[in-house]
Each structure stands twice: as structure tokens, then as C-alpha cells.
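Sample 3 of the quickstart, ligand protoporphyrin IX containing FE:
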Amino acid sequence: MAASTALASRALAFGPDKSLALLRDGYQFWQNLRDQRGSDVVRARLLHERATCIRGGDAARFFYEEPRLERSSALPAPIVGTLFGHGAVHTLDADQHVHRKSLFTDLLTAEAVGAIAAEVGRRWDERAPTWRGETELFEEASAILLGAVGAWLGLPIHAEDAAGRAADMLAMVDGFGSPGARHWRGHRARGRTEHWMEGVLQDIRDGGSHEAPIGTVALFRDGGGELLPVHTAAVEAINLVRPTVAISWLLSGVALAFDSWPHLREDLASGTISALDLAQEVRRCYPVAPFLAARATEDLEWSGEPIPAGSLVVLDLWGTDHDPRIWPDPFRFDPTRFQQTPVTPFNLVPQGGGDRNRGHRCPGEDVTLAVLITLIPRVAGLSYAVVGERPGLRRMPPRPTCRIDVRSA
Ligand code: HEM
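Result:
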């Protein structure tokens, strides 16, 4: 009797399903619950799963360091199917995860990061002088980023396919936050992209060896020494390309920031802020990933709150990046804040937190920062005004468009 009462009260504590409210409120969903309930730890039922949401630096440490939290069953199938791909590193745990992760961390060396960023800069310098009048910066940036990461990887991207491939990379990301047409667009984009990438990798396998990084992906072996199924290798190759192209979202953030706060150009020129300060503030304020989930394998407790075995723990990334206990005046765009509050593994988590080799932290953070640091002075040097709708916090991810009206230099 006592056990069934405890279960009933737990069922009540998670309340009715709030998936629709999540779609409506977007990045602010968990903050709204925190405000309504006056509590820092909040619970909700999402897609019929019980979820306990935590945020802040200590919460991020718990999320990344608690060994009884696992990822393999925590991500909803539609998100795996469009955004990451089945069998992706994101969905692995323990030794299998650490081994697969080494594919990414071994490839993304400082030298590789430098090469990708330099290629992005070179392609931008070629392309930007052709921009006049209203320009879709988001699309232009996605083509530049695809070309640069493709050149580094050694991917054969035919000129006539490049725009479609870049659009497919964006569509896979754009589909994650919506159950409707956007999701199906992402699903179809994934199908096309996996088919293409499987062909590329199979050709490399048939040829036996390949010097470029794409060859390392094609010939990567699992912990038991077996080649990955070609589909899984394709999924991981796409996990290098798609998120690099997704830096377009952050670049749009850079363009919006210069447009909203023109003094940033002078601050940058005078050295009051660095390009790194600005890149970090853009990552904090223009979110892409809203939150992450992991499943409790045993009954756990966080900050005195019980977390039942089998339920989800959600780390609110946006909420952590706007936690006033870490970032004072969190809704103010202020790149100088990093001069007072240095970034730690757990206080700024737009790309996850903790250790990137052993945990799930994004291995592409250095690429992201290097690309932004390369492009920030170039965007600052453009004369433009942002036109059209500005992204808000409801749509996840924000509408993938940033049109700029480029004035002749
Ligand atoms: C717009 C820029 C990016 C954003 C917002 C972003 C965000 C994220 C987030 C939130 C995670 C999940 C961390 C976790 O599960 O704990 C992640 C993981 C990952 N990211 Fe990124 N990322 C970006 C760029 C990149 C780039 C440039 C690459 C590769 C070149 C990359 C490759 C990956 C991979 C492979 C994972 C899975 C890591 C794992 O599960 O161990 N990302 N990213």
C-alpha cells in the first residue's frame, strides 16, 4: 500500500504530458516551469517520459559525472533519426562511447581546427565581395562552411550538388524541434545524405586506403577490431559535416549582434573585447541546442530531489547559460562578462560540458570557436543592416534565415 501511494505521488509529481507546451515555449519552457513553481528543480512529462530538469554549474557536473546516467535510451527516436543518425556516438555509453569518441577527438586536432578555420576564411574572402543588396547570409555561410569542412575531410562534393548538400545539412538540424513538415524535411534530407555518404565510404573501402580524414572515418574499427557497418560510418562522417555547417546559426547571431549593438565594432577594434569574448557571448545568447537528456539507471537524488530509476534527467543548457548565479544580468548581451567570469567546463554549456574525451561534450567546440573568431572581424568589416524577421526564443532552432542588406563598401 505504502509503495503504491509513493508511486502515485511520483506519477502526480510529473503531471500531465507537456510536450505541446515545450513546442510552444521553446528554449524558455523549463524557465517558465521554474517561474511557475518557484523551484530550481522542476519535473514534467514529455513524450510520455518522466523528466526532472536541472540547471546550473553543479547540475552540469552531476549530469556529466554521475555514472548512473546513460544516454543510449534517452534520446527520442525521431531526434536520433533526423539529427544524429542511428548508431551515432551521441547514443553510446561507457567503453563503446569512449572508443567511438576517439574517432572525433583524434581527427579534430589543433592542426585540423586551424586548417578548417583558414579554409573558411579563404572561402569567405572569395565570396563576400560578390554580395550586394539583400543577401541570405545564413545560406551563404552554409555553403562556405560545407566547402571548407568538405575540403578538409577530402569529400568529393561536386559543384552542382553543393547547394543541395548544404541545404540538407541545415534541414537535418532544423527538423529537431518540430513534429511536422520540418521534421519530415529533415528526415528526407538525412536519407539523401546517408545514401551519398555511404557511397563515398564504400568507394574508399573498395579502394583499400585513403590519406584524407574521410579515409580514417571509412576505415575506423570498433573496439573489437571490426569495421563499422558502412551506415554507421556514414552517420559519423555526417556528424563531422552537419554540425560544422550548423555554425551558420551562430554566424547569424554574430550578424544580429553587430546590427543590434553597433558599439561592438568599436569595442573590438579598440581591444575592449576580443573576438573570443564575442564568440562566447554569441554562443551563450543565440542558442541552438536547448537541453540534453540522460536516463537514470537507479534511483538517484539531486539537490535533495528524488530522481526515480528509469526516468530522465534533463540538463537545461539554455537555463544554465542564463543562470544568474553564474552569469549576472544574464539577458544582457555583454562580451566583457568573460573578463570577470572565466569559462569553466561546467558554467557555459551551449555545446555540452565536462570532459570532451571521456564524456559526451561536443568535440567540435574548438572548430566552432575558431570559425567564429575567423569570421567575426570579417562580419565587422561588412557594411550591412539586418532585414526581415529576427529570431526569438520560441522556435527551436531559430528560423534559419538571416538576410543582410549589404551596402557597397
Ligand atoms: C553550431 C555549433 C555546434 C553546436 C551548437 C553543437 C552542440 C552540441 C551539443 C549540445 C552536443 C551534445 C553534448 C552532449 O550530449 O553532452 C554536441 C555533441 C557533438 N557534437 Fe557538436 N555542436 C556544434 C558544432 C560541432 C562541430 C563543428 C562538430 C564537429 C566538427 C560537432 C560534433 C559533435 C559530435 C560528434 C557530438 C557527439 C559527442 C558525443 O556524444 O560524445 N559539433 N554538440
